[in-house]
Write a structure and sequence with these properties.
The protein has about 190 residues and is an alpha/beta fold. Helix content is about 45%, strand content about 15%. It has 7 helices and 6 strands; from the N terminus they run E-H-E-H-E-H-H-E-H-E-H-E-H.
Length: about 190
């Protein structure tokens, strides 16, 4: 595990930010749940990194993901999601975003040169408001044909079809057995 790239407490982020600024590095921030890291996440991080020198990825805690996505999420626990991101070549630091952190707290702390988001992340009004802490905001299209949520829906649909088919066969067989019994008893 590359734990030196994982920041669990915002206070521990400040020395990194100070050094990056001292070295005149352009800081990019991206954030989200990043559940089940897939090719879209990797492409997205690569594209985000192309806007500067240092890519920091804020990752929602398990509790934050549950609140946003529902009780069955995340699929992958936060410690694994954090570590997986450190293995992407474009990612320099990964920061855990806790449920109780004030809105946009990480953005306000980092004040990135570039904030990278997807179209669904912020409204136009929110983007205007965020400009007070971000020098530039870049909105990217999705980088994969399906999101984690869409992939999970496909898995669920496949499982549902299998259960339904098995249930239907057993139900028909049970009905036939009951009818046969009734026929024999009559």
């Amino acid at each position: 595990m590359t734990s030196s790239q994982i920041i669990l407490d915002y206070k521990k982020l400040e020395p990194f930010l100070d050094q990056y600024r001292k070295d005149k590095k352009k800081i990019i921030l991206n954030q989200g749940p990043v559940d089940m890291v897939h090719i879209g996440h990797a492409r997205y991080c690569e594209k985000a990194k192309s806007y500067g020198d240092v890519l920091i990825v804020g990752v929602d805690s398990d509790e934050k993901v549950k609140k946003r996505k529902g009780p069955d999420r995340p699929i992958v626990p936060e410690d694994e999601r954090l570590e997986m991101l450190t293995h992407l070549r474009a990612v320099d630091l990964v920061v855990l975003k806790k449920l109780d952190a004030p809105k946009w707290d990480l953005i306000k702390l980092i004040q990135p040169d570039v904030l990278v988001a997807t179209k669904k992340t912020y409204t136009d009004e929110q983007i205007e408001e965020l400009k007070q802490w971000c020098k530039k905001i870049v909105v990217l299209d999705p980088m994969a044909t399906t999101s984690t949520s869409a992939k999970l829906r496909l898995v669920q649909m496949g499982a549902t079809k299998k259960v339904s088919a098995a249930f239907s066969k057993k139900l028909v067989k049970s009905i036939e057995e009951v009818l046969a019994e009734l026929k024999g008893d009559a």
